[in-house]
Specification:
single chain, 291 residues, mainly beta, Elongation Factor Tu (Ef-tu), domain 3, Jelly Rolls, nine-stranded antiparallel beta sheet, 1 helix, 5% helix
Length: 291
Amino acid sequence: MTLQLTWYAPDGTPTVFSATATDYVLLKKYQGFSFTPAVHRTTRFPYQNGATIQNTDGDPREISFEVMVKASTLGEMETLIENLSDQFNPLGEEGILVYEKANGDVRRIYCKSNMPSIDMGVRNATSQKVLIKLIAYDPFWYSDTTNIAYVAPPGTNMFPFPTVTSWPWEFGAISPSPTVINAGTMDAACTFVFTGPIQNPSLNNLTTGKTFSITKDMAAGDTFTVTTDIGEQSAYYTPSGGAVANGMQWVDITAEFWQLVPGNNMITLTAVSATSPAGCSVEWSDRYVGV
């Protein structure tokens, strides 16, 4: 298997680049895939030698790769170049770049397009070298599957399962204390979905000692959805048959919007009271620093 890149434009249209392609041939000149850019924040006092580091954050990732556009006629070449212009429109929304490694591993990253540039030195009616340029404001790569685990309070069974609305999924065990495995190399942000009937539930990561709690008596059919990604943290309460409401007012003041650390995470769900099919789902994608 050879390296293959697939670009999914904001409208979902795929464009495939590989060494064996007949139209968009992936060349060997590409960069920005393997190493995560970072910014180090420091403080320095008068007369201090060096500096004291405060924290380090990932910086936006710039990605580029060269492609040889191949066509049999000038008209076909014009169509292929126009397609690139449409699919890599810098005025559009984010797209997804999927990286399929030679060993079969697949990763994805969310990017904005910068307009491709044409190499004027390599240009004729049937061959045209083009440089594709992207920027990922979230610099991390993600697994190609979304993982989900279900957690039930002690003494209950979480049935029926919540509805799965997207694919592919990997299913975790349904038990009071499932071990959730983050196979990535970075902490993985999560989406929690609490399902009633349950009162004042707490979702606990025993591996990290962190807890997310809400102070809400949820009836059967009610859901409470939480996202934990830094910069995108949110909470929404949806009563059965009712309208979605901002749920931050019910988030406990001590709650931590925790993420899954790499490796095993032991998760439990506790509550003042709960009745089947009460429970909570934990959804995440494994996150990686590079490919």
